Amino acid sequence: CAVESYEQVRASADLVKAAGATVLRGGACKPRTSPYSFHGLAEEGLKIMQQVGRETGLVTISEVMSADMVGLVGDHVDILQIGARSMQNFPLLIEAGKSGKPVFLKRGPSATIDEFLLAAEYVLSQGNSKVILCERGVIPLDRSYVRNTFDISAIPVLQEHSHLPVVADPSHGTGVARYVAPMAKAAMVSGAQGVMIEMHPNPKVALSDGSQALTPEQFSSLMNELRGLAGYLGVKM
Ligand code: PEP
Ligand code: MN
User: How far apart are CA 105 and CA 118, in angstroms?
Assistant: First the structure.
């Protein structure tokens, strides 16, 4: 979830790369429900992402929370993440569009499909065609079991109504580590063009989203299962 230190990001990068991942996501600016939670290392965290990206050859992605930060985040990572809470931050969408950088746009927790697609349109309308849509779950009926309801049907629906690639985030989609693998597999079977999975070298000490983070062992065994599924489905991974 978050960039905590160079050592934590480098260890994570080595582990996910060895397991077959191609993109490294680490948040340096974290939107948190409480103002007293860990909010990320900001510029220092972005520098860590840039350094680890260079060292490992992994493509990097990090969240940008405001229009005035687009330049700074874009100078350090390959892809700009716009988080669920910012999906309708229109000045941010416009600035991200103008940057020309690839934009990873997450669906708002209560956003309809049309609202999501129109948010993407804000980026596209700036002449930036590099938009990736991310389904990350919507507000659940019952929060006692899951953090969000992972909307699997959104994957084929979004693909039918747009030409943009759709990536699934079963980590925020469930909020519970043991439900991440089943939903990641469901996402792949449903046609998702990618999955974003949160992992941590030691989830118990993670500064954010530890309860949904996979251990390195869980991550690599999920990657093996996804590779098996990709073979069965005849899709490239
Ligand atoms: C995240 O990706 O770590 C995150 C904060 O996700 P979301 O914006 O979907 O809540
Ligand atoms: Mn997170």
Answer: 11
pLDDT value, residue 156:
98
The answer to whether 155 and 168 are in contact (CB under 8 A) is: yes
What are the counts of helices (DSSP H) followed by strands (DSSP E) for the chain?
Answer: 9, 7
pLDDT band at 105 (very low <50, low <70, confident <90, very high): very high
Best residue among 4, 37, 106 to mutate for probing ligand 1, ranked by most atoms within 8 Å of CB: 106
Closest CA to 61 of 29, 31, 38: 29
Residue among 173, 184, 172 at smallest CA distance from 220: 184
The answer to whether the predicted template modeling score (pTM) of the entire model surpasses 0.85 is yes
56-82 mean pLDDT: 98
Residue 121, both tokens: 């349109």
CA distance 59 to 151: 27
Distance CA(143)–CA(171), nearest Å, equals 15
Number of the ligand 1 atom closest to the C-alpha atom of 2: 3
Inter-residue contact 99 to 71 (CB < 8 Å): yes
CA of 4 from ligand 2 middle (Å) equals 13
| CA 33 / ligand 1 centre spacing (Å) | 11
β-strand partners of 138: 149
